Amino acid sequence: MRYNLIRKMDIADGPGVRVSIFMQGCAFHCKNCFNTETWDFNGGKEFTNDTINEVLDLCNQGHIKGLSILGGEPLHPNNIEGTTKLAKAFKEKYPEKNLWVWSGFKFDEDLQGKEVLNYIDVLVDGQYKDELHDFTLKWRGSSNQRVIDVQKSLKENKIVYAVD
Ligand code: SF4
């Protein structure tokens, strides 16, 4: 598995000041994707335990409110194992900080039963649809995408939105 980029301070991808990591590789190829350099599964850099430790160290600052995992596609079969490992390690070390993940896969159709859901606070799901693009939307690019409170959704066995 590979990743594209780590941002030490990100104020655009989730609430507050955050650390973010963009995983490498996406097979969805959405029209007008904002991040085409992450499509190639062979691009970027190798994702290792050192990468996980680097991200965890960067999160160890009071002003960092959480971690955001984007892509590329962090939950593609090639990437989900590494993403799950990072997500688990992050929530174990920082239970008070939140984890946001962006994925083209859908919570209810594609991700049910996946271990990674246990560690995600907010999932922004669904592929980017250019014809539904709306720049007034918060945290998502097109109106089909959903900002889901994962822990409440799992508990209540229905989709609960974190943001309408
Ligand atoms: S899922 Fe995301 S990274 Fe993949 S093609 Fe669509 S917008 Fe781009």
Characterise the protein shown here.
The protein has 164 residues and is an alpha/beta fold. It has one domain (2-163): TIM Barrel, CATH 3.20.20.70. The chain contains three helices and eight strands. The longest helix is centred in the middle third of the chain and has 14 residues, at 80-93. The mean pLDDT is 97. Iron/sulfur cluster binds at residues 26, 28-30, 33, 35, 38, 71-73, 104, 127-128.
Topology at a glance:
Layout: E1 2-10, E2 18-23, E3 45-46, H1 49-59, E4 66-70, H2 80-93, E5 98-103, E6 122-125, E7 146-149, H3 150-156, E8 161-163
Parallel strand pairs: 2-4, 4-5, 5-6
Antiparallel strand pairs: 1-2, 1-3, 6-7, 7-8
* Strand ordering within the main sheet: 3-1-2-4-5-6-7-8
Counted by DSSP, the helix tally is 3
Total domain count:
1
Strand proportion: 15-25%
The set of bound ligands, ions and cofactors reads:
iron/sulfur cluster
* Percent of residues in helices: 10-25%
Please give the CATH architecture.
Alpha-Beta Barrel
Low-pLDDT runs of 5+ residues are: none
* Counted beta strands: 8
Tell me, briefly, the overall form.
globular
Helices and strands, in order, run as EEEHEHEEEHE
CA(first)-CA(last) distance: 33 Å
For this structure, the CATH topology is TIM Barrel
Kindly name the structural category.
alpha/beta
The CATH homology group name: Aldolase class I
The level-1 CATH class: Alpha Beta
Largest sheet: 8 strands, mixed
Oligomer: single chain
The Cα radius of gyration reads 15 Å
| Mean pLDDT score | 97
